User: What shape does this take?
Amino acid sequence: MNISRRHLMVLLPAAAVAWKYVLAGTPEDAPNYQMSEHWWGMLIDIPKCIGCGNCVRACQTENDVPDGFFRTWVERYHRTDYHLENPEVISPDGGKEGFPVVSGGAAGDYFFVPKMCNHCADSPCTQVCPVGATFISPDGVVLVDQKYCLGCAYCVQACPYGCRYIHPTKKVADKCTLCYHRITKGLTTACCEACPTGARQLADLKNPNDPIHEFLRTHTVQVLKPQMATGAKAFYNGLDGSVR
Amino acid sequence: MSGLKDAGHLFRFAGLFVLAFLVFLVVRAYVVPKSFGEYGHYRGASIGEIAARPVRFAGHQTCETCHTDIADTKTKGKHAHVNCEACHGALAQHADDPTSLTPVKPDTLVLCARCHTASAAKPKGFPQVDPADHMGGVPCETCHNPHSPAMGSDSSTSAATGGAK
Assistant: This one.
């Protein structure tokens, strides 16, 4: 093969870029994923949620979540005329197998609220970790380094949304990773993949073509506990004031 | 320099401090992982470890590369935006090697009821039926094609085979 000096000058920088992936492992496994180009969040459309529990089951399958623990769960709120301030909330087994049927003509109104890690930009849970085992990644996902975690559970207490738990056998902190192993491969999260009504949508806030921007502009969207200034990135459409 | 005549013990002590500091530096260099502090106060390599976990849900784009007939049926119907694995379960193993795992056909009496059982708690616009009243134990796919559930919407394919020709 004859390569002119000019061609070599063109090829060398390309080879230098490729070498990084050669060093990182096999080329097939080296993804074209750049952390600096993403800032992940989640859009949750409450009026679309039917409380089927598909997301909870999918999360458990995808991430080996132990029984009785939840990285995501669904709550059903019941507001009656007299108890707007104190709604009745149920979440039987995290809503994994759905919810008890309500017959027609029942007083008040009902709605479902899927809950998960809000992947806060200014997260309380990462601030309290004494060993640097939990952190927000450069692409905006709050993760746990389970090899570094001591299992002190300080972060479990710090999370205002109750999204963390201590894994019963690993004895380290565990939580939603926003399916980091999927989104870095160009897939959506397991819960979004399994949601039949599109109530959950993965959002890349750094991608100007992501439909999230249009949605945020045209809808009344709120985050949970905004007064805590956590920079939560789970955006709820149609969030009722009674949701805690 | 006469003032330092009796200060030998102080220099020995200072020497001990310097030695201890050097030992600390050596131990720290040995104990702290190389990637710690790469992006922040954490082990940078852990990001790659988390990203390397296996995928269980293949994603509907993967399913549609082979099952084009079902994908075509689905895009015309009400279930166009219901992803394959929302009903069929996680099938990345099947996508990697179709012979290794044959998906079990879901029981429509259980599956459909999960979403479509009538409840006043569900959003009003969502199609809901009372299972006992609606079909009384007859499997849903007898009348509805699960991939395109509106009746009579897809007469060219048999409802019982789920739209597969």
Residues 60-161 of chain B form one domain. Confidence is low (pLDDT under 50) at residues 155-165 of chain B. The interface with chain A takes residues 36, 39-43, 46-47, 49-57, 59-60, 81-83, 85-87, 89-90, 114-115, 117-123, 126 of chain B (CB under 8 Å). Helices of chain B lie at 8-31, 45-51, 60-66, 68-76, 84-88, 92-96, 108-116, 131-134.
